[in-house]
Amino acid sequence: MAKASGFFTPSLRTKIQPSIGVSRSGFCLSEGIFKRVVCSSGIESAGTHVSSSQSRIPKLVNKGCKLVGCGSAVPSLSVSNDDLAKIVDTSDEWISVRTGIRNRRVISGKENLRNLAVEAAKKALKMANVEPDDLDLILLCTSTPEDIFGDAPKVLILLDAYLNGNLFMLWQSCKVQRELGCTKSQLAHDITAACSGFMLGLFSASCYIKGGGFRNVLVIGADVMSRFVDWTDRGTCILFGDAAGAVVLQACDAEEDGLLSFDLHSDGEGARHLGAPINDNENGSVLEFPPNRPSYACIQMNGKEVFRFAVRCVPQSIESALEKAGLTASNIDWLLLHQANQRIIDAVATRLEFPPEKVISNLANYGNTSAASIPLALDEAVRSGKVKPGHTITAAGFGAGLTWGSAVIRWG
């Protein structure tokens, strides 16, 4: 590969350091910028102790967090490989052999990202036995929002409308938040990191709880990739589907902590291999005013390079997360990867010596649902009884950015 895409080279770890790591002892940067942050009444950094009374920096709280609920939602329309064969030169065999995908869900009618996100959130809250007003934060991980300024605050209002059965609120909620009856103005914001978005959401939720004193955080991964797919491009239209998945994280005692470690990375040099940029020819120039209204291109992907990136970087990241957690692959009950391609999932599992029966995969039914793929697969595994309380999972997301990251988590 060309030198410009250096994220594929053996120098990867040296090049992108420092990476972000989190373990049960606190937050750290791998190059020793902060060797340790102690969760106590003060902050210890670079050998200097500063008490909370001497600083305006909020003190870190000695808390853990655990996953207590999950939920998911998918559109009603199912599009099979045979359906795609009617519009592009492909076949069920061609797609399934190369990707492992047989069906995907696509929004239709009045379905949209917010509705999917709210449905998934509602199910997660019900499992967690948490009321909307008990939430301190909603994180919506998406790269396909209904509003360029973000959808998380609107999801909060829609969630209240759904749970209270107020249809007037449901239809009007996107316009006037204050008038629709929400009793709390919880913090809500979006996270954009494409297929790694849910992993960034988990990490952010962990920081808010362990470092900020938050109690209940809702993390939603939702994407409607069908809006940005070129349905005449056989290389991409066969891969993507729409869905939403959600989890509720709750503060707990430090010894019950269920988010054991993280390993997160990004490298913009590989962005040219996967993205949906603004169309340059519609941007206008500095000599034109007002500029033309921009629009985004359809998803553009170099599949071979993305495959190489994933099978090299993801195992390294998982191994790093396991090391930070003080565990080995033999201690893990389940491997849960972003559902991008079955060949990638199999290659990573083989390198890490995970047996097939310990790998969670629902790719065949939904395709690549971007930020929704991990929580969607987790929810199905939990509700089917496959994942049980106390089970340890190593999860990894990877995709556009390029971004990738892993976590070691305990369910329940």
From TrEMBL:
What GO annotations for molecular function exist for this entry?
Answer: 3-oxoacyl-[acyl-carrier-protein] synthase activity; beta-ketoacyl-acyl-carrier-protein synthase III activity
Q: What class of enzyme is it?
A: transferase
Q: Which pathway is it part of?
A: Lipid metabolism; fatty acid biosynthesis
Provide the E.C. number(s) assigned to this enzyme: 2.3.1.180
* GO CC field: chloroplast
All copies of domain Beta-ketoacyl-[acyl-carrier-protein] synthase III C-terminal, residue ranges? 322-411
Q: Which GO terms describe its biological process?
A: fatty acid biosynthetic process
Q: Which reaction does it catalyse?
A: malonyl-[ACP] + acetyl-CoA + H(+) = 3-oxobutanoyl-[ACP] + CO2 + CoA
Task: Write out the function statement from the record.
Answer: Catalyzes the condensation reaction of fatty acid synthesis by the addition to an acyl acceptor of two carbons from malonyl-ACP. KAS III catalyzes the first condensation reaction which initiates fatty acid synthesis and may therefore play a role in governing the total rate of fatty acid production. Possesses both acetoacetyl-ACP synthase and acetyl transacylase activities.
Q: Give the UniProt family note.
A: Belongs to the thiolase-like superfamily. FabH family.
PANTHER family assigned? 3-OXOACYL-[ACYL-CARRIER-PROTEIN] SYNTHASE, BETA-KETOACYL-[ACYL-CARRIER-PROTEIN] SYNTHASE III, CHLOROPLASTIC
- Name of the protein described by the UniProt record: beta-ketoacyl-[acyl-carrier-protein] synthase III
Organism field: Gossypium raimondii (Peruvian cotton)
Organism lineage: Eukaryota, Viridiplantae, Streptophyta, Embryophyta, Tracheophyta
